[in-house]
Amino acid sequence: MTDTSTDNQDNLTNISKILWDNRLKPDNSWKDNPKCSEIQQKLLLFNPNHPDNPEHIDKVIKCVIRGVRLTEEAINWYEPSIGDTQKRGDIDKIRGVQWRLVIAYSGFEITTKALMNNFERGKPLDIPNFIKMCSLPIYNPLDTPNPKKKENLDKWLAKDQDAIAEFLSVTAGDKKIIERWIIKANSISSWEEALKLAKALRNASAHGFLSAKKVQDWQLKPGLSTLADNLGEIMAAGLKKLI
User: Fold this and answer.
1) Residues β-bridged to residue 142
2) Residue 113's pLDDT band (boundaries 50, 70, 90)?
3) Are 199 and 105 in contact (CB under 8 A)?
4) Which of 177, 179, 186, 156 is nearest to 168 (CA)?
5) What pLDDT score was predicted for residue 3?
6) Which among 12, 72, 194, 240 is least buried, having the fewest CB atoms inside 10 angstroms?
7) Burial annotation 62-78 (CB, 10 A radius, 16+ → b, else e)
8) In degrees rounded to 5, what are phi and psi of residue 181?
9) Greatest CA separation found in the chain?
10) CA distances from 138 to 131, 142, 170 (A)
11) Model confidence at 144, in pLDDT bands (50, 70, 90)?
12) In the structure, how many helices (H) and strands (E) does the chain have?
């Protein structure tokens, strides 16, 4: 996994600060020219249809900032845990790791949709194109987990639970990438696959389809942690294009 510590000069916190200092500050200055037009020119890399008007640029920048703050808070949550502060056990820590990913993905989605000029509700993010625009290094593969109770995982992904999964916003694509990684034991070998898996596990966690106990039994905790860090790395690469 790429280094995501505070010593890494390309991490999200450092890149977002450079972007603010060199391009965005002071607050709301992006509404005026020449800065407004300069930012619009940078945004054209992600979508050639970004209009050159202050209202649009203001909307984009505010969404970018809001999303970055969410993801920063998530990836800098170094010992995540949810539960009784006096009695936090392994399950509480696993829940924390799950919600670290949920929060990181929420911020990622807000920021990337703004950069891609995708404000239409329900319209999916063009993941391959966004990854291409970010000029990321080669992805360091994410190894498959080693589930203790693989038979329970087969049942969890079985067709008789499709209706439940759909109700809980877990799509067929989500189930496919989860099955490929865990049951078929195929490592995640690209940024695009990492994003798809992050989305799938985020959906499964946020809507209650994937419990902390299942994460524990299937040894998913390291992968969840790595995927949250990956989201920060992708966002940092995207923000560098605006500097």
Assistant:
1) 188
2) very high
3) yes
4) 156
5) 40
6) 240
7) ebbbebbebbbebbebe
8) -75, -45
9) 61
10) 11, 12, 29
11) very high
12) 11, 0
Q: Which of 188, 174, 179 is nearest to 226 (CA)?
A: 188
Contacts of 105 (CB under 8 A, 6+ apart): 198, 199, 202, 228, 231
Phi, psi for 142 (deg, rounded to 5): -95, 115
Domain ranges within the chain, ordered by starting residue: 12-240
Place of tokens 């799950």: 98
User: How far apart are the C-alpha atoms of 119 and 129, rounded to whole Å?
Assistant: 16
DSSP 25: P
Q: Phi and psi dihedrals of 188, rounded to 5?
A: -85, 120
Amino acid at 39: I
- Is 166 in a helix, a strand, or coil? helix
Would you say how long the chain is, in residues? Answer: 243
Q: Which two tokens stand for residue 241?
A: 């294009």
Q: Which residues contact 220 (CB under 8 A, 6 or more apart)?
A: 145, 182, 201, 214
Please report the pLDDT score of residue 34 as a whole number.
95
**Predicted confidence (pLDDT) at residue 235 exceeds the cutoff of 90:** yes
CB-CB contact of 234 with 191 (8 Å): yes
Distance of CA 76 to the CA centre of its chain: 14
> DSSP of 144-163, one letter per residue?
----S-HHHHHHHTSGGGHH
As given in the structure block, the two tokens for residue 126 are 């063009």
Rounded alpha-carbon distances, angstroms, from residue 52 to 24, 28, 109, 111, 243? 16, 16, 23, 19, 18
Query: Nearest 5 degrees, angle CA 192-CA 193-CA 198?
Result: 100
- Rounded alpha-carbon distances, angstroms, from residue 199 to 17, 169, 185, 229: 26, 11, 19, 13
Q: Locate 61 and state its tokens.
A: 């920048």
